[in-house]
Design goal:
It is built from 33 helices and 20 strands.
């Protein structure tokens, strides 16, 4: 209440000062401030010297009132809505800027009054101070007005949000259908917290985030490993777990075959972690087990865990027939191309409209406050240039003093001098942009852009078409590269393979440069001629942009909805038995919601499915250099990760708005976990990420950040906290373009789990299983399995888990390690048609390793399980003892089994080949995991005796 009163007082003070100023004589005081010379000033004043003196005297009242009101508004924001340390620092800088603007304004008025008395020199100095003043006011006063509006809005709607949360707590429910589901284990056991806070770190500004205290912080010095090993409550350690890798439709087919062969073992497992393409199959299993409806006909749609998606079932046949899920046939191809074009037009249209509105505002700004002279392009004013030079000189002085203070070892003094140096540098650069860059851009655009309207439209269309073609080429490049197989010459093949790699990056950079130049031309043209546009355009354009930016969800204008719907056509299916005994595979309805808390629940006799995705974070507060993503999982009980916290899935479903709620479904979890193309892709090239953000070819989505939900959902939540957005507006698209993903933001950009770790092995080890089975169909035809090596290193770094694989075992996975299909002869043999295939054959597809946890595992009953575990890795590779059909297919298709992940158009032959490969490696794993034994046998001596290590082990 007090904050609202202060906000109203700030508005009243500013209004009072403005009213007093308007009572004075109406003169062109802004023109006098920026005259810059005595001749220009006297020409402007003429015989109205007394009127100008009266207006300048009244300006002192306005200066005092807007200084007091702006400082009050900024101080109020620092006490209420500025919850981040960065925001509070900006508040301090804002208050300093307002005070500096007040000093510049007072100095400028005194100089002008002295100049009107007859002196000539004060006008140039006054113009310099006025330039700095206007820069500071343009930066701070609008921010203060927005702050006042936000404070009043949150104060008004705070009570409504608290009443809604109170009703939800009173109902004490997590999902409307959970209590009606038979055999559901979601709410079994003790009451679980709604939010599990992430482990704290020191963020920018030497502030701990999150600041809330945890009830069970780590007590050992290995706090990083303990924090990284935290999972949501209710997920016990021990037992058998599976993880299936990413790799698009290739991995989905391998996973399908492997889980068919391992179905008895899968039904005994506790966890099934899936990444990207592996999630296609696990999501299909989960949706097929979910039944039809919670109200009617559930028995007709009930599938058994032992036969769902098994060979010969209708649901397996449905997925095979829709393996080209992206597009099949002319109609679907047109829809797919149209979806990419729609997203491109929406993104470029919004960005173009934003640039036009910004240019229109700058055009009117330069007209009302002529910091540049439009009568003589490029319009640089001498006093403004001297003001820029003065600010940069002050920065140089403070930089020198800062170096001296470092030599004197005065910490407080050096910190203050460093802040002063940075402040003057930023102020100088901002002023240079306003008085140099924008006028130069306006002048250059007026000289360069002389095309008429038709030519302008054609140029814009050419830029859009170039961007569109580049996006299509970038997303389907692997499929284009298959044309290399038609080249017979080995030398030419190497050349053809070298050119596309370079050409791909050159094409992307050319498009980005062209779009950047076009954007500058649009902005410069709007600055130059925006004020002369028709009145309807000047009013309608900002209004339309505001309405669209406030009402349009950026995720739903991207490719994410299209991608999710296309995946559902192939993998969202349920078996049905009609009254006459006929068995059918019935696809899910397009508008049927599949809430993760309901449809993703754990079924009796089936593991808990955990979809592994990645939350993208910028900076080094949470992630090391080169890895800008952390684990983010989605399951029926909790969503989130140890680095960002966990939120209870059902509670999050109830407390989010309908637009965001659509991304908390099983179908969306499958799509998010496989969102390979996004504006943030972990370690991938930044140029491609910018292109995907610019063109709206984004498959990821923005989800609530569990780390901030604890404070928002608290019964004593501060009203100044920003509420969770109900729609992801234009600023989220701008964040993707700029690559800004703060860890304490309200929303997180969640993308493909492969951007963090592509096997799901680290997430499975985080749950502390004693036997981990990893199905690796991630691709890569080198001597080593790169995804496995990265997972081993990441598990050691984040969890302290060591994985040991003996040399004689991992060498079996190396292509060419198997004996040749044709034995060597003493005499020179004739050309061997199997020579090329021999180089691709591995000695085995399955290897075993030892898992060494840093702490003893404890099961749900409190029993100690020791620190040793067993790892079984089944890699999609070729062996000499494979069935004839697989070897024949491999001989005819050189890329098998490592077809590019970008190629998502599998025909029936390729689908069957990868499924058969998965079934083959699954059978090899099944030999090591007999169903009748609770303690699976092992061929490795250290698994029979835990105290013994394998010789020649390596990570």
């Amino acid at each position: 209440m007090h904050s609202c009163v202060l906000a109203v007082v700030a508005l009243a003070v500013f209004a009072a000062g403005l009213w007093i100023r308007l009572q004075a004589s109406v003169v062109d005081d802004v023109g006098l401030q920026l005259a810059g010379s005595a001749r220009a000033a006297h020409t402007l004043v003429g015989v109205r010297t007394a009127d100008f003196r009266t207006a300048l005297t009244a300006d002192f009242v306005l200066i005092g009132t807007y200084t007091v009101s702006t400082v009050l508004a900024l101080w109020l924001s620092g006490r209420t809505i500025a919850v981040r340390m960065r925001h509070r620092c900006l508040v301090v800088y804002g208050i300093g800027g307002v005070v500096a603007a007040c000093v510049c304004a007072v100095t400028e008025k005194l100089l002008l009054l002295h100049g009107l008395s007859g002196a000539d020199w004060p006008f140039a100095w006054a113009a310099g101070f006025a330039t700095v003043k206007w820069l500071l006011l343009v930066v701070t006063v609008p921010v203060a007005a927005v702050v006042v509006a936000i404070v009043l809005k949150r104060a008004v709607f705070y009570g409504c949000a608290q009443r809604r949360y109170a009703r939800e707590r009173a109902c004490h429910r997590t999902c409307a259908c959970e209590s009606r589901r038979r055999g559901d284990t979601t709410d079994s056991g003790p009451e679980r917290p709604d939010v599990v806070a992430p482990w704290p770190v020191m963020e920018w500004g030497r502030r701990r985030w999150p600041g809330t205290a945890r009830c069970d912080p780590p007590r050992s010095r290995e706090a990083r490993w303990e924090n990284g090993s935290r999972v949501p409550p209710g997920r016990e350690q021990g037992g058998l777990g599976f993880c299936v890798s990413g790799g698009g439709i290739r991995s989905a087919c391998v996973t399908l075959g492997a889980l068919q062969a391992l179905r008895p073992q899968l039904c005994r497992a506790r966890y099934l972690v899936s990444v990207s393409g592996g999630g296609y199959t696990t999501g299909a299993l989960q949706l097929a087990l979910a039944g039809k409806s919670r109200w009617c006909e559930e028995g007709r749609y009930r599938a058994g865990t032992d036969d769902v998606f098994m060979p010969g079932t209708p649901e397996e046949d449905h997925t095979r027939r829709h393996s080209k899920y992206v597009a099949e046939g002319t109609g679907q191809w047109l829809v797919a191309i149209g979806a990419v074009l729609r997203g491109l037009l929406a993104s470029l249209g919004l960005l173009t409209a934003t640039l036009l509105v910004l240019g229109l505002a700058l055009s009117w700004g330069y007209h009302l406050v002529p910091l540049a002279d439009p009568t003589r392009l490029p319009g640089f004013r001498g006093p403004a240039l001297w003001a820029v030079l003065a600010l940069l000189c002050c920065a140089a002085v403070f930089w020198f003093l800062w170096l001296v203070s470092l030599f004197l070892a005065r910490q407080f003094l050096s910190g203050a001098l460093k802040k002063a140096f940075l402040t003057f540098v930023v102020a100088g650069l901002l002023l240079a942009v306003v008085v140099l860059v924008f006028p130069a851009l306006e002048w250059g655009t007026a000289r360069i852009w002389t095309l008429h309207a038709p030519a302008t439209a054609a140029s814009g269309g050419a830029v859009g078409l170039l961007t569109y073609v580049t996006v299509l080429v970038s997303t389907t490049w692997r499929r284009i590269e298959t044309a290399e197989h038609a080249v017979e010459s080995a030398r030419r093949s190497q050349l053809v393979r070298a050119i596309p790699v370079v050409a791909k990056y050159l094409l992307v950079w050319v498009v980005l440069i062209v779009v950047a130049v076009a954007s500058l031309l649009v902005l410069g043209g709007a600055i130059h001629g925006g004020r002369t546009w028709p009145g309807a355009v000047q009013i309608g354009l900002p209004v339309v942009l505001g309405v669209v930016a406030l009402s349009l969800d950026q995720t739903w204008t991207s490719l994410h909805p299209f991608y999710r719907a296309r995946l559902a056509t192939a993998f969202a299916v349920r078996p049905r038995t009609d009254p006459d005994g006929e068995q059918l595979a019935v696809p899910y309805e397009f508008d049927e919601p599949t809430p993760l808390a309901c449809y993703g629940r754990r079924h009796p006799g089936f593991p808990q499915v955990v979809f592994a995705a990645a939350a993208n974070l910028s900076g080094d507060d949470r992630t090391p250099p080169g890895r800008h993503a952390v684990s983010f999982t989605l399951s029926y009980d909790y969503v989130g990760g140890p680095d960002v916290g966990y939120a209870r899935t059902g509670v999050l479903w109830n407390r989010t708005r309908p637009v965001i709620r659509k991304d908390l479904t099983v179908e969306s979890a499958v799509a998010v976990s496989g969102a390979a193309f996004a504006s943030a892709m972990g370690r991938q090239a930044r140029a491609f990420q910018t292109l995907f953000a610019l063109s709206n070819a984004r498959l990821g989505t923005w989800l609530p950040n569990p780390g901030v939900l604890g404070a928002l959902w608290d019964e004593r939540a501060d009203w100044g906290l920003p509420p969770m957005p109900g729609i992801r507006r234009l600023p989220y698209l701008l964040r993707e373009l700029s690559g800004r993903y703060p860890m304490d933001d309200r929303m997180l950009l969640v993308t493909d789990g492969g951007h963090y770790e592509n096997l799901g092995l680290v997430e499975l080890l985080r749950h502390g299983v004693t036997t981990a089975v990893c199905v690796d169909a991630s691709g890569g035809s080198g001597a080593f399995a790169p995804a496995l090596g990265e997972a081993i290193a990441l598990a050691q770094e984040e969890l302290g888990v060591e994985i040991r694989i003996a040399r004689e075992d991992w060498r079996k996975l190396v292509p060419g390690s198997a004996p040749p299909l044709t034995p060597q002869q003493a005499q020179p043999p004739p050309p061997n048609p199997l020579a090329a295939l021999d180089l691709r054959l591995s000695a085995d597809t399955v290897v075993e390793g030892e898992i060494v946890y840093p702490r003893a595992l404890v099961d749900e009953r409190g029993r100690t399980l020791g620190t040793r575990g067993r790892l079984i890795v089944a890699r999609a590779t070729l062996t000499a003892d494979m069935p004839y059909a697989l070897l024949a297919y491999a001989q005819a298709n050189q890329e098998f089994p490592h077809d590019g992940t970008s190629d998502q158009w599998f025909d029936s032959r390729r689908f069957d080949a990868y499924q058969a490969l998965g079934h083959w490696i699954g059978e090899r794993v099944a030999e090591l995991l007999p169903v009748e034994s609770c303690a699976p046998r092992s061929r490795m001596p250290w698994c029979r005796k835990s105290g013994r290590r394998a010789a020649g082990s390596g990570a």
